[in-house]
Amino acid sequence: MASLPSPNKRVREVSILVTASSIGLALVIAIFLGAGAGWWLDKFLGTTPWCFIIGLLLGVVAGYRNIYILAKRLDRSQEETHLANKKKDDQ
Questions:
Q1: Are 41 and 55 in contact (CB under 8 A)?
Q2: Confidence class of residue 3 from pLDDT cuts 50, 70 and 90?
Q3: Residue 9, Cα to own-chain centre: how many angstroms?
Q4: Taking a C-beta distance cutoff of 8 angstroms, is the pair 39, 58 a contact?
Q5: Which listed site, 27, 39, 54, 71, has its alpha carbon 20 to 30 Å from 80?
Q6: pLDDT-derived band at 1, boundaries 50, 70, 90
Q7: What is the C-alpha to C-alpha distance for residues 11 and 3, in angstroms, rounded to an integer?
Q8: What distance in Å separates the CA atoms of residue 38 and residue 78, rounded to the nearest whole number?
Q9: What angle do CA 20, 25, 31 make, to 5 degrees?
Q10: At residue 79, does pLDDT exceed 90?
Q11: What is the per-residue DSSP string for 43-83?
């Protein structure tokens, strides 16, 4: 009979899933915020389309930076889970 996973293991697994699922959202939100801010500045300053293009590019850069940070966090979480499972197996 298989035993249920410990509460700490469940929390780690849910944390990994939440981090992984937020990766795409972080990219899309950053792009939309950058493009939206650029569009607004274009309307305010009358510089169409330069602020929009710069805002879009900055949003893409920020989005990929967010992906990098979240991927590092996900990797670290998986490493901690692996080490905890290995330590449990050694006992």
A1: yes
A2: low
A3: 21
A4: no
A5: 27
A6: very low
A7: 16
A8: 37
A9: 135
A10: no
A11: HHHT-TTHHHHHHHHHHHHHHHHHHHHHHHHHHHHHHHHHH
How many angstroms separate the CA atoms of 91 and 89, rounded?
Answer: 5
Contact in structure between 52 and 78 (CB atoms under 8 Å):
no
Our separate counts of H helices and E strands in the chain read 2, 0
What count of residues does the chain have?
91
User: What's the chain's average pLDDT?
Assistant: 86
| Residue 45 scores a pLDDT above 60 | yes
Q: Which amino acid is at 70?
A: L
Residues 23-34 as b/e (b if ≥16 CB within 10 A, e otherwise) read: beebbeebbeeb
Rounded Cα distance, 8 and 85, in Å: 11
Which amino acid, 14? Answer: V
Distance CA 28, CA 16 (A): 20
